[in-house]
Amino acid sequence: MTGRARRVVPAAVFSVLVVGGWQLYTAVSGISPLLLPSPWDVARSVVDNAGLFADNAVVTLQEILIGFALGGAAGVALGVLLTYSRVAERAVYPWLVASQMVPIVAVAPILVVWFGFTIVPKVVVVALVCFFPVVVNTVDGLKAVDPEMVRLMRTLGMSRPRIMRSVRVPSALPYIFSGLKVAMALSVIGAVFGEWVGASEGLGYLMLALNNQLATIDLFAAVLVLSLMGIALFFLVGVVERLAIPWHHETRREARE
């Protein structure tokens, strides 16, 4: 069995067992579809309402991608600044940690008041939830570089900006991508929160509407579409990571073997 098959087969078998057990339970227990629809009914709802789900998924995807790009870029930039300047780190880092004590569900309504029922509040919410994990992982990665390498570069006459660009940032890329993968997973939650507070379209808005209508089967279908979209985006970040730092994955593969 190839390495790829060893990774895919266990996940596929487990998924079949879960879905099969779910289908069997709904068939033999007689539970109402209003409480727990069967996987078959959920899949059929996705097919029957493909146009509705696709239209709303495009809106949510747009919010996720824009917010993720803004939050990720700002997180990396601030992480570099905090590593480069000890004064900035001492001044900003405590406020950065304190900002995470404020629940995002409390911030979202304020953003709607400021920006109205536009895409802006949703994008800002996504950017906020993406920002923190990227900053923290960037700072940890930039500080994890071998100090002997830094001293060697200084001995060779390299300036701090050049050391940052040539030594610290390449060494920190695995950490940065770890933060980006966490941020991508959180971005889906952020988009849904933003749409729950104030929206007229999007999968989060659709889920609220279906819940109010007690359309449980369609609600499960919307959750399934949102989950599949989030999984695809997470793996997309992983693909970019493999292309950007192939040496890191090769080293990890050799370590496992």
Flag low-confidence runs: none
Termini separation comes to: 14 Å
Please tell me what the overall shape is: globular
Strand count, sense and barrel status of the largest sheet are: none
Radius of gyration: 22 Å
How much of the sequence is in beta strands? Answer: under 5%
DSSP helix fraction: over 70%
Give the count of helical stretches: 11
Topology:
Elements: H1 3-29, H2 39-48, H3 50-84, H4 86-99, H5 104-115, H6 119-143, H7 147-155, H8 160-197, H9 203-212, H10 216-244, H11 246-256
Task: Give structural notes.
With 257 residues, this protein is mainly α. The protein is built from 11 helices and no strands. Helix 3 packs antiparallel against helix 8 and helix 5 crosses helix 6 (119-143). The mean pLDDT is 86.
Can you tag this structure with a few keywords?
257 residues; 11 helices; mainly alpha
Short description:
This protein has 257 residues and is mainly α.
